[in-house]
Amino acid sequence: xxxxxxxxxxxxxxxxxxxxxxxxxxxxxxxxxxxxxxxxxxxxxxxxxxxxxxxxxxxxxxxxxxxxxxxxxxxxxxxxxxxxxxxxxxxxxxxxxxxxxxxxxxxxxxxxxxxxxxxxxxxxxxxxxxxxxxxxxxxxxx
Length: 142
Fold this sequence. Notes:
20% helix; 35% strand; DNA damage; DNA repair; 8-oxo-dGTP diphosphatase; Nudix_hydrolase; NUDIX_hydrolase_CS
């Protein structure tokens, strides 16, 4: 089995709204929206990478809460894993590779042009939130 590169992304929620980030680079992704995050560096856990990436990209301190079930293929050799994250401090602002941020309510998730590879991850985040709100699913006990 070949090594794969794990890319972590944060489903950062505040007051029931999900934070989306618009890419400014690279050119082929510019103008489309994603869950912010980035690649694991050697020796990092996914949770450590997520905290570091959100600090570097958005200037915020976060706490990973739960892994969103599933993982999604990106380009060859890359896979996306998503965690819900709690905003601890800071006001999100686009610092690296993004030019805009937007908080999306549950009924606004289709209001932005998500990157193709982020669409199933965003849907999984929404499903997880619904299940928790309804008291069903794995995370219902929280």
